[in-house]
Amino acid sequence: MGVEKVYLTGYTGFPPRKEITKTALGAEEMVSWEKHEDPLPVLRTLKSEGWQIVALEIAPEALDIRNFQASDRVCLVVGHELTGIPQELMDLADATVMIPMLGKKESLNVAVAAGIALYQLRGL
Fold first, then answer.
1. What is the mean pLDDT of residues 50-66?
2. 3-state secondary structure the chain
3. What is the pTM of this model?
């Protein structure tokens, strides 16, 4: 199973942009993506189409991602590195997962965390 689409929302950078092209090494041309200012309508539509909405967040109710079984149609929601996922988006989530960490730090760069989570959720 591959990535069907990446939804970029808010102030997230999007192609064409030289920093993305340099970092992605052409992958930005291989993955379907859409840019939306507001993620709320996107998540509502995906949920109504039967997608499982999974929030990646440090929260008391978060499940260890290693023990979470995702459906075949899963949408991973990642938030702002400092403020996390807004509550109105969390309210749409079917599940909340977290990446367990050792040591004193409790968070990762959002791009790194998304990569780890997508790898784990797809069972690759």
1. 94
2. CCCCCEEEECCCCCCCCHHHHHHHCCHHHCCCEEEECCHHHHHHHHHHCCCEEEEECCCCCCEEHHHCCCCCCEEEECCECCCECCHHHHCCCCEEEECCCCCCCCCCCHHHHHHHHHHHHCCC
3. 0.86
